[in-house]
Amino acid sequence: MADPESFENHGVRKGKNLYESSTRYLELSMSRAEDTGTSYTRNLRDWSPEDEDMDPSKYFEKRLRTLEADHKAGKKLYPRGFSVSMSIPEFLNKYGSLKADERMEDAKEYLAGRVMNKLTSSNMITYDLVGFDGQIQVMAFPKFFDENATTFFKLHSDLKNGDYIGVIGFPGKSRIGELSVIQKKFVNLSYCLHKMPPTHYKVKTTGDWTPGNGRYPDAYILNDEETRFRRRFLDLTINSEIKDIFKTRTKVVSYIRQFLEILGFLEAETPTLTMFPGGRGGKRGAFVTRYHDDRNLKMFMRNGHENVYLKQLVVGGIESVFEIGKQFINNEGEIDDLMHNNPEVTTCEFYMGFASYKDLMELTEQILSGMVMELTGGYTVTYHADGYHNPPIEIDFTPPFRRISMIKELEKIADLRIPKDLESEEARQYLADACTKFHINCSPPQTTPRLLHKLVEHFVEEKCVNPTFIIDHPEITSPLAKAHESKQGLTERFTLFINKLEVVNGYTVENDPVVQRQRFSDQLKVDTTSGNEEAMAFLEDETFWMALDYGLPPTGGWVLGIDKLTMLLTDSLNIKEVILFPAMKPQPHVKPPPIKGEKILVTGGVNDDDNDNDWFLLQSPNTTQPDDDDDDDEYHLNAKLKDELNLN
Fold this sequence. Notes:
By secondary structure, this protein is an alpha+beta fold. The protein folds into 3 domains: 4-208, CATH 2.40.50.140; 244-401 and 466-578, BirA Bifunctional Protein, domain 2 (2-Layer Sandwich); 589-646, no CATH class. The chain contains 17 helices and 25 strands. Strands 8-12-13-20-19-18-17-16 form an 8-stranded mixed beta sheet, with helices on both faces. A 5-stranded mixed beta barrel has the order 2-3-4-6-5. A hairpin with a 2-residue loop joins strand 3 and strand 4 (134-140). It is elongated. 34% of the residues are buried.
């Protein structure tokens, strides 16, 4: 065990949402022992986190042997259930009014949760009982236990960090007023076979972080992103703040859903598998699969927010309709920043009959400012835009949001005079020269929409930190939006940017089928070199055109990125932080945990071109390949693979 006097050195820098030193934690534990009248010593060396120095693989084997012995002895393992009398938050609420040094020994409560931070001394045992919504300290003494002292210590010696248990006990407060459960009995409900990280060195201060506040993931007990994202179950177990992130995500979705339902919107579900790949990149940006029946149809995962099915529902008389669902983007490899690097994202899309883009901008302000107020109690959120090692910024959601005209703002900032006819070669060449002048890279094909996007991204979007509507998008970049009623060549479309991220896209829907067809045809002419598959997909969808022919009322279309908004509200710099199970590159596949000395077959990843299998011998510093190719070369386990095998 590490020298207790050095525990302070394990504490993380002081501040909100961080960790207290374990010395303080142990002092509180011993104070509670004194409060209960139990003798103890103040020497911290008498308090021991169990199995601290044991090798993870040996720990795993020891637990398996113990459980096997218990099974042979007739002990019933993994019971079918446990009747809890209340949750941990309910317990805290019910007995929080107890006075300092008061106990209710006649009370009998049944609580359940995971054991963490277990510490043992010669005369008492203490651990945290952690549930979904909170945790509470459990104090175990032989004098209060239902069985004798020998049984008490034997049962608790088999209890390990990570185990799920049911606790039967009564409430009590220490002299310093901290509420605990005094244990009378416990039932082991499930066993953690693997060694948990040493959380007793960094006791997390729970309940401090709330949406809109800054976070410090580097200070997490488990802070390796690769491990956290691949093993979210461990991330949620060790880093309690992660649960709060996903609670926030759920609240974001719930708020939007309730807001729209109150306005009379109907929630709909539309196909994820489609015949036509609308959205970004057309077929190039879509995941392709096949419907293997007698029709053998090629189908596409939907990859954009131009949901033709929702528009058809508006035509059918469901005038206000929304959907919260997944989009599958297969061309995000072109975008390598952490804000976008997941092929599966969640959006909310709605269509509102008889509404224009101006109505939708006001609605957007109401949704976002109201949501931020409900989640944070104010209009500002803290965000580490420049990384967690730099000071955070504040993003102000106070309505109304700023509105800027795209072309005017670009010309103003970059001192440009863009030709009015954006469909002309003159305009395309002017934009190309501007990109060259400002050293802005635009990969081929250098079409007008792509060049304009690069310039706006560089000059305009970079200045949108507080919520900002970029309005008056050109027709050449917005074929689905209705032409502006007074500004030639522009459309009634907006995009809302927050901290340089596009969070919302909205527009007045073009409902004239003749004009809409012409728009897509013109887009193909402008973008002939790249073969605009998005426009082609729309033109091929005859059901969509037939629906427009039957009459689409004046409609506003709107889509919001759930993941991006959640990132902003939870101070997350990587989209994988707000997706429970993000896409990760494949790793070598390992067979279920073997016994010592067993050869382990590690196969290539799912997408590996090399199908060769590698053999390793557990707990050996190096191994040899099987004899089938008579190769005596030694293979050394790298640190990551050893980590995988030890599962520590």
